[in-house]
């Protein structure tokens, strides 16, 4: 090693290597699936020694779970920030959260594939992480909607599951980059059970419609 | 052998299901097993198709009692039959909704296709949305996928036998995008 090379702080190097190994398993599992991804491929892609991997992680599954954990935290952070900063009516919060999540999928297709496709089928532990993440989004949805519109936990869980299903399909078709195009349909889908669909969207139009309907009935 | 595999799978999970265990349960020798199936996975595929077919038959028979014009009743009957079929047979629920995702990519694709196949039944005769505008295709898929995801999570949590108690909520979830929440709730409470 050149004596002139400035030495980087040890912690920086260590965390950078951890990051590289996590990135490697994200990319490899997106390219060929979790099952077909081998330790040898990961260390080669990350440019680290095999020993470094085992110093940091118990093995492939542990690394995979760490990568899922980081990706889920990033996605949930984005959604939460979007929900809390959205202004106006509560529907804007839900829509902003959904938009942030679709943005995450579009910008980070490999991360999205790992969390939403591979995690489901890779191992029981990764499926459990997927489950936890889903529950986290159910909580976010619950917090973004006013108490008086409250739906049962089961229905909110099913709404989040439905959105996840649509994105799972989108990612599997290789169309993650176009995820944001789903925003209008998905926000209508998520918001409709909270009150009649007629009240959503073009509000003045629908309100006059329902008034007419009411006076006719 | 298919029944044997389905039972063993339910008890020990996909990873620990072996050809010997299946053979023991079905009272067939290993060599007999291999006369019918190339491998555990091959048997799993057959069992998976069989499970989906059994569920589909029940659901379609229930829907078939109503005409296309009675769409809400058809959906209700279909979902009711889906939930009770799964609640009565936790091993069936497990293979179709949980183990199907755990058994590698080939089966995972079949799981997806099986769930997708229910979209057509839901869409058939579905009314335009409460606003009068056609309900987007993504909604049909999200309804079916959302139900599959919910049921899978309940089965995984060991609550397969109580799955039929979810009927009102699953039904509300399924009908609301098409009828609006007021009408959906009215239909559910009318029983």
Please give the count of helices of chain A. 10
Distance between the termini of chain B: 40 Å
Biggest sheet features of chain A = none
Principal-axes geometry of chain A comes out as elongated
Cα shape of chain B? elongated
Query: How many DSSP E strands of chain B?
Result: 0
Provide the helix percentage of chain A: over 70%
> What is the chain-wise order of helices and strands of chain A?
HHHHHHHHHH
The main sheet of chain B comes to: none
SS summary, helix count of chain B: 10
Largest interface: A-B, 39 and 36 residues
Report the uncertain regions of chain B. Answer: none
Whole-number average pLDDT of chain B?
89
Tell me, rounded to a whole number, the average pLDDT of chain A. Answer: 86
Give a short overview.
The complex is a heterodimer of chains A (217) and B (191). With 217 residues, chain A is mainly alpha-helical.
How would you characterize the overall build of this protein?
The complex is a heterodimer of chains A (about 220) and B (about 190). With about 220 residues, chain A is mostly helical. Helix content of chain A is about 75%, strand content about 0%. Chain A has helices at about 10-30, 40-45, 50-55, 60-85, 90-105, 110-120, 125-145, 155-170, 185-190, 205-215. In chain A, α4 (about 60-85) runs parallel beside α7, α5 (about 90-105) crosses α9 and α7 packs across α8. The longest helix of chain A has 26 residues, at about 60-85. Chain A starts with 9 loop residues before the first helix and ends with a helix. Chain B has about 190 residues and is mainly alpha-helical. Chain B is built from ten helices and no strands. Chain B has helices spanning about 1-10, 20-25, 30-35, 40-65, 70-90, 90-100, 105-125, 135-155, 165-180, 180-190. Chain B is elongated, with a radius of gyration of 18 Å. The model of chain B has no long low-confidence stretch (mean pLDDT about 90).
């Amino acid at each position: 090693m050149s004596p002139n090379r400035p030495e980087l702080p040890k912690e920086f190097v260590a965390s950078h290597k951890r990051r590289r190994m996590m990135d490697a398993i994200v990319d490899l599992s997106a390219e060929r699936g979790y099952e077909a991804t081998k330790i040898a491929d990961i260390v080669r892609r990350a440019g680290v020694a095999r020993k470094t991997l085992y110093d940091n992680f118990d093995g492939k599954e542990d690394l995979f779970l760490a990568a899922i954990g980081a990706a889920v935290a990033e996605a949930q952070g984005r959604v939460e920030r979007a929900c809390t900063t959205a202004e106006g009516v509560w529907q804007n919060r839900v829509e902003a959260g959904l938009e942030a999540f679709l943005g995450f999928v579009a910008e980070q297709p490999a991360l999205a594939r790992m969390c939403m496709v591979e995690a489901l089928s890779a191992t029981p532990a990764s499926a459990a992480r997927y489950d936890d993440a889903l529950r986290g989004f159910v909580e976010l949805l619950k917090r973004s909607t006013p108490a008086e519109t409250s739906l049962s936990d089961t229905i909110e869980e099913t709404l989040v599951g439905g959105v996840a299903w649509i994105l799972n399909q989108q990612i599997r078709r290789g169309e993650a980059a176009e995820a944001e195009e789903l925003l209008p349909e998905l926000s209508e889908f998520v918001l409709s059970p909270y009150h009649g669909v007629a009240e959503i969207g073009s509000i003045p139009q629908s309100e006059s419609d329902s008034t007419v309907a009411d006076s006719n009935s | 052998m298919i029944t044997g595999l389905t039972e063993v799978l339910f008890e020990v999970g996909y990873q620990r299901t072996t050809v010997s265990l299946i053979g023991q349960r079905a009272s067939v020798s290993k060599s007999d097993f291999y006369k019918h199936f190339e491998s555990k996975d091959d048997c799993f595929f057959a069992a998976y198709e069989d499970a989906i077919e059994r569920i589909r038959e029940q659901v379609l028979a229930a829907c078939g009692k109503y005409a296309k014009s009675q769409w809400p009743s058809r959906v209700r009957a279909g979902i009711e039959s889906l939930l009770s079929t799964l609640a009565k047979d936790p091993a069936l629920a497990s293979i179709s909704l949980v183990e199907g995702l755990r058994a590698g990519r080939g089966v995972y694709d079949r799981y997806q296709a099986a769930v997708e196949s229910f979209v057509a039944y839901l869409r058939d005769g579905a009314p335009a949305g409460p606003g009068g505008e056609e309900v987007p295709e993504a909604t049909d898929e999200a309804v079916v996928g959302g139900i599959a995801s919910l049921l899978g999570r309940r089965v995984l949590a060991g609550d397969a036998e109580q799955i039929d108690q979810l009927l009102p909520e699953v039904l509300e979830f399924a009908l609301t995008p098409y009828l609006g929440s007021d009408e959906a709730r009215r239909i559910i409470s009318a029983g």
